[in-house]
């Protein structure tokens, strides 16, 4: 029939438009290549199917050992190492963004294929290694009935937990395996819709302030500007009173915050916008400067205007600062920790970053823990794979790293929200 | 007085087919008007409405198309002129699908192509409906 040619042509155009072009270019560092935005009629989506580890383990560099110190958790996201070596694990899933357009039903289904089906724990689990043999034989529920806890910080005897809707405080005594009572609310947080629900948190070096990351309520304002009030910001919260102010703005989804030892500067990893092509927009690592605007939603990587935002705002675009270091587009950094010399010479100075991995790209990236070497307090060099092997060769994923934390004894703690485990990487020393 | 077996009225077209065809143009028209509202106000809710109205249009047009194809093959008269109506509906539906994908882009990324396609689709849907209700169209109830 004649008509088959007629509609076969447009359909083939659709298919071609969805195919990504492979290209070699500078993805990392302070000056990443930024190609022209592109978006076919079908977005690039590729979500690796979950697979089991079997008797295999993630890959670590020679001289390092990785073990799973807790399994069967309920969606572990971030961890905190307490002064006595106990590890607190925040478990849960948040967000209540309703599907908006027909596409949200389809995209939501596809994305759910790459995540765990385990129910949100909404709790803190405490892991303890009493005999110091590297196996955390004690596992207790420290606190439950929380609301998608994510950010954790300890200042003296105050344990701060960032739920998806509030920062709360527990009294903490060293050696506790269970919270002594209900938490006290320090401040409520923007939580309507909560498209990006994670509330990353860290305490200032002197412990007076909490820094808290609030993600945007959309990819790129498709839920309207009214939904973005007090979103895509890092707040500075007075730890005693709960009074707060926006410390920096325009950070689309600041998913992990950390204070740099020595300089005491605040750093963040930020997840940038999707649907501008496989190599836009780079997720980044940056210092967070008081009063600065980082572009979202009006522009990215400084002054690159995003045409999808109306009305536009040239003045804000003009004021946008350029982030410090590109981690590559769509890698989805969710964990950030500064290293210490005990991690071995090669990884002594720099940051570890947990990359949850991409969905908006035909060729998956991320799904690993990388190390960004620093020199004189600044990033210096390309990322180095530290923990990999989460993606299998046949394109499935066995795990997805989230939070990373340094254990002062010389270990990296990694939360994995697909395996529902906590991994511990130790340095064996020079042998 | 003699009784007659002759019916004095036409049997009329299939009611389901008629409702589907008649609903197509208003839904695509709504899509276009919502796109216009979004383009002048930047209020995102209009873009959301447009996406759903377009989906509604695709469902109505799709079912009408199905009826049209069945009707064509069941009819004894398969002159090419009778192919015009299903062909127009098919074109409407395919461009409506492309428009749905365009509307799936976030925020202003659906513009201007989404609005332009909405105008083309509503014109095509109107033409298809016109032809559909003409003597080359739906025909009598089978």
TrEMBL record, chain B:
Name recorded for this polypeptide: Uncharacterized protein
Organism annotation: Vreelandella titanicae
Xref: Pfam families: DUF2231
């Amino acid at each position: 029939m004649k008509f088959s040619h007629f509609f076969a042509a447009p359909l083939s155009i659709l298919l071609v438009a969805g195919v990504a072009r492979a290209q070699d270019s500078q993805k990392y560092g302070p000056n990443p290549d930024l190609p022209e935005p592109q978006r076919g009629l079908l977005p690039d989506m590729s979500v690796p199917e979950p697979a089991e580890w079997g008797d295999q383990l993630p890959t670590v560099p020679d001289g390092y050992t990785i073990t799973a110190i807790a399994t069967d958790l309920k969606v572990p996201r971030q961890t905190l190492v307490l002064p006595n070596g106990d590890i607190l694990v925040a478990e849960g899933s948040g967000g209540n963004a309703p599907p908006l357009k027909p596409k949200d039903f389809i995209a939501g289904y596809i994305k759910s294929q790459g995540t765990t089906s385990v129910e949100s724990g909404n709790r803190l689990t405490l892991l303890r290694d009493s005999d110091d043999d590297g196996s955390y034989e004690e596992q207790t529920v420290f606190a439950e009935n929380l609301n998608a806890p994510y950010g954790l910080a300890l200042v003296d005897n105050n344990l701060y937990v960032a739920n998806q809707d509030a920062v709360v405080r527990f009294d903490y005594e060293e050696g506790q395996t269970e919270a002594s009572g209900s938490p006290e609310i320090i401040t409520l947080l923007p939580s309507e819709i909560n498209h990006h629900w994670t509330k990353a948190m860290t305490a200032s070096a002197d412990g007076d302030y909490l820094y808290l990351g609030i993600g945007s309520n959309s990819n790129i304002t498709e839920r309207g500007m009214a939904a973005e009030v007090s979103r895509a910001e890092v707040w500075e919260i007075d730890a005693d009173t709960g009074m707060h102010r926006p410390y920096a703005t325009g950070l689309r989804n600041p998913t992990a915050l950390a204070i740099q030892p020595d300089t005491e500067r605040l750093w963040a990893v930020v997840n940038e916008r999707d649907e501008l092509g496989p190599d836009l927009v780079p997720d980044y690592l940056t210092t967070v400067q008081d009063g600065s605007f980082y572009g979202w939603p009006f522009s990215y990587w400084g002054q690159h205007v995003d045409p999808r935002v109306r009305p536009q705002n040239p003045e804000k675009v003009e004021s946008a600062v350029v982030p410090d270091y590109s981690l590559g587009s769509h890698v989805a950094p969710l964990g950030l920790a500064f290293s210490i010399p005990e991690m071995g010479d090669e990884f002594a100075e720099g940051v570890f970053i947990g990359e949850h991995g991409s969905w908006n790209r035909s060729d998956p990236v991320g799904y690993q823990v990388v190390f960004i070497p620093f020199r004189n307090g600044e990033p210096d060099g390309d990322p180095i794979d530290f923990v990999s092997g989460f993606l299998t060769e046949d394109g499935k994923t066995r795990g997805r790293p989230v939070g990373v934390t340094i254990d002062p004894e010389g270990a990296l703690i990694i939360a994995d929200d697909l395996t529902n485990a906590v991994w511990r990487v130790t340095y064996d020393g020079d042998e | 007085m003699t009784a007659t077996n002759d019916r004095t009225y036409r049997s009329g077209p299939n009611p389901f087919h008629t409702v589907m065809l008649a609903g197509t143009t208003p839904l695509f028209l709504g899509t276009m008007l919502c796109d216009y509202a979004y383009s002048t106000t930047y209020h995102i809710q209009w873009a959301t409405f447009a996406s759903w109205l377009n989906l509604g249009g695709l469902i109505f047009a799709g079912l009408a198309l199905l009826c049209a194809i069945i009707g064509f093959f069941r009819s004894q008269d398969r002159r090419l002129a009778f192919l015009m109506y299903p062909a127009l509906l098919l074109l409407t539906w395919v461009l409506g699908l492309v428009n749905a994908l365009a509307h799936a882009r976030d925020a202003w990324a659906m513009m201007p192509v989404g609005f332009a396609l909405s105008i083309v689709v509503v014109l095509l849907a109107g033409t298809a409906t016109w032809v559909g209700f003409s003597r080359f169209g739906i025909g009598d109830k089978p």
